[in-house]
């Protein structure tokens, strides 16, 4: 197939004087022209559509803001009217094997990385650009930014990944446990939250993005490009890897892991997301930001845990993005490179509070021990507890976080450990980690802890009979999952011997949350959580009891408490 340029639309009329985010005139931009290109790459020919700024009917060479996306069915360059008057060209390329691009779709893999690299380098050589490219977009459109940046293409100046996946394993699995089709049943993402936390990985992508044929039927090469998309590619390989009950982190997932390569990225990166994103998972942005150790300018901008999948709420974030591209692509001296390293919106049980900005908060790790208090109740304590020799709960295959949160002290199939009532507000920033000694008469067990903000004043009754009488009485701040076979790492299984006491370390997902004075922290520990993940049935009849035995070693929860 030959490379070609197709003129799609004439210059748009109307005189507009571009004023970038800095307030400095960018020159007269009085229109735009939309053109499509077919970009040759090592793996396939990629469809690219660009809205180019014009002045007096002539294209003005401009820096390019690029999105590399499989979502072309939803439209391309819908925000061009924002960027083009500011002196940018707005570009949109269809991911390999999707939309109007040829080749085999590769679900975050090496073909996706190579074609992203080649598209950027091709754009940088064109006369209608200044040779500087930035990338923008959210969800999958943010994920391809990581995939491209780790290949270091010439011309890529900066990226702004929003709610993006930095490691595909973490979109499908947590600690070797498969996510299911759900969102927070307690309503903490809001009524419109999408319920697709990994269940569509990669089935919906392979058979949703890659199967529909190219839509530009007037293209003389349409038949050839249709043939390249309907030929079976890697769909079965993708499906086999992503719907496995024992998902070892192998070469398939390493190809789709950008975190381990992000330390090689030196360009400026603005990582954006929300603490309440349980679709892509907020840990993807957290891990990416902390892996960008050699970026000349890395910033993190996260919205509240009450906001789900998407960009941080409020005008401040949009203004920061405008200033970011004006500085790094146009050279505008607006000081954005000196913006705070971390801008984060903390929350409490009543909702979002405010954005706090500065260096990453300094934390004092707080260790709370699990045990029984002097009254025999299960407790979290800053001191080692000496009480009952062991605690037990059972695997039922039916547990949910919502049920445990509504009656945390009912017990039976789960345990709830409560801290003393807080005497001051406590802000958590980062990842709590559960260290647990457990014994089972099996070779493995799943552990799914949830950390709750519990307001005792809003419960009626006490102990096992305690029942919430208002929705804000209990909020699940964060949670974690682990199949004990992966306690030494995700790359291989290590079964336990039945009856042997095993130490399990379960990292919970990162959060920024403030627990108010008068509340309690409650840690719920159970084996399965059907609100979030697929239960793993044990293949042979065995005792379902899980025993936490303090005679073998102390169990504790470590909290990232921000210094007062």
Description:
- With 564 residues, this protein is of the alpha+beta class.
- It has two domains: 5-358, Rossmann fold; 363-562, Jelly Rolls, CATH 2.60.120.260.
- 16% of the residues lie in helices and 32% in strands.
- It contains eleven helices and 33 strands.
- The strands form eight sheets. Strands 1, 4, 5, 6, 7, 8, 9, 10, 13, 14, 15 and 16 form a twelve-stranded mixed beta sheet that branches. Strands 17, 18, 19, 22, 29, 32 and 33 form a seven-stranded antiparallel beta sheet that branches.
- Strand 9, helix 3 (140-149) and strand 10 form a beta-alpha-beta unit.
- It is globular, with a radius of gyration of 26 Å.
- The model is unreliable at 1-26 and 185-194 (pLDDT under 50).
Topology diagram in text:
Elements (H helix, E strand, L loop, with lengths): L4 E5 L6 E2 L10 E2 L1 E10 L4 E11 L2 E2 L2 E8 L10 H4 L5 E6 L15 H15 L4 E10 L1 H10 L6 E7 L6 H4 E2 L2 E2 L24 H6 L13 H9 L4 H8 L8 H5 L13 E6 L7 H10 L6 E6 L11 H16 L11 E7 L2 E8 L4 E10 L5 E4 L8 E5 L6 H6 L7 E5 L7 E5 L2 E8 L5 E2 L2 E5 L4 E2 L6 E2 L5 E6 L2 E2 L17 E7 L3 E5 L4 E7 L18 E5 L6 E7 L2
Parallel strand pairs: 7-8, 7-9, 9-10, 10-13, 13-14, 14-15
Antiparallel strand pairs: 1-4, 2-3, 4-5, 5-6, 5-8, 11-12, 15-16, 17-18, 17-33, 19-32, 20-31, 21-30, 22-29, 22-32, 22-33, 23-28, 24-27, 24-31, 25-26
Helix pairs in contact: 2-3
């Amino acid at each position: 197939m030959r490379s070609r340029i197709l003129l799609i639309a004439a210059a748009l009329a109307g005189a507009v004087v571009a004023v970038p985010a800095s307030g400095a005139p960018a020159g007269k931009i009085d229109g735009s022209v939309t053109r499509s290109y077919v970009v040759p790459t090592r793996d396939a020919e990629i469809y690219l559509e660009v809205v180019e700024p014009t002045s007096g009917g002539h294209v003005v060479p401009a820096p390019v803001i690029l999105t590399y996306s499989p979502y072309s069915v939803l439209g391309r360059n819908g925000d061009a009217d924002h960027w083009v008057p500011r002196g940018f060209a707005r570009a949109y390329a269809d991911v390999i094997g999707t939309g109007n691009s040829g080749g085999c779709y590769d679900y975050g893999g090496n073909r996706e990385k190579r074609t992203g690299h080649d598209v950027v380098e091709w754009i940088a050589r064109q006369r209608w650009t200044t040779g500087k490219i930035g990338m923008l977009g959210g969800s999958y459109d943010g994920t391809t930014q990581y995939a491209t940046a780790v290949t270091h293409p010439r011309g890529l100046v900066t990226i702004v990944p929003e709610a993006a996946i930095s490691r595909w394993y973490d979109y499908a699995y947590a600690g070797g446990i498969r996510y299911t089709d759900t969102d927070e049943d307690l309503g903490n993402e809001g009524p419109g939250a999408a319920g697709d936390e990994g269940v569509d990985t990669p089935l919906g992508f392979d058979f949703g993005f890659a199967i529909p044929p190219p839509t530009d039927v007037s293209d003389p090469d349409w038949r050839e490009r249709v043939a390249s998309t309907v030929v079976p590619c890697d769909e079965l390989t993708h499906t086999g890897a992503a719907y496995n009950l024992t998902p070892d982190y192998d070469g398939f997932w390493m190809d789709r892991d950008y975190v381990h390569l992000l330390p090689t990225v030196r360009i400026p990166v603005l990582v954006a997301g929300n603490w309440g994103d349980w679709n892509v998972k907020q840990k993807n942005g957290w891990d990416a930001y902390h892996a960008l150790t050699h970026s000349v300018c890395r910033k993190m901008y996260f919205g509240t845990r009450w906001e789900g999948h998407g960009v941080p709420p409020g005008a401040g974030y949009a203004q920061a993005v405008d200033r970011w591209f004006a500085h790094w692509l146009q050279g505008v001296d607006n000081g954005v490179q000196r913006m705070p390293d971390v801008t984060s919106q903390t929350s409490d049980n009543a909702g979002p509070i405010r954005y706090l900005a500065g260096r990453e908060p300094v934390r004092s790790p707080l260790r709370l021990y699990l045990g029984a208090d002097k009254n025999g109740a299960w407790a979290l304590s800053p001191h080692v507890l000496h009480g009952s020799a062991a605690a037990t709960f059972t695997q039922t295959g039916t547990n949910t976080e919502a049920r445990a949160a509504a009656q945390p002290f009912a017990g039976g199939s789960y345990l709830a450990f409560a801290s003393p009532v807080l005497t001051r507000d406590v802000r958590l920033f980062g990842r709590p980690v559960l260290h647990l000694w457990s014994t089972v008469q099996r070779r493995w067990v799943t552990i799914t802890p949830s950390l709750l903000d519990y307001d005792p004043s809003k419960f009626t009754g006490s102990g096992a009979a305690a029942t919430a009488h208002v929705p804000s009485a209990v909020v699940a701040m964060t949670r974690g999952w682990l199949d004990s076979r992966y306690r030494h790492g995700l790359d291989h299984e290590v079964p336990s011997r039945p009856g042997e006491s095993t130490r399990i370390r379960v990292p919970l997902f990162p959060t920024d949350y403030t627990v108010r004075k008068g509340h309690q922290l409650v840690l719920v520990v159970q084996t399965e959580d059907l609100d979030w993940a697929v239960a793993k049935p044990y293949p042979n009849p065995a005792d379902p009891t899980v025993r936490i035995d303090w005679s073998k070693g102390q169990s504790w929860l470590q909290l990232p408490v921000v210094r007062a």
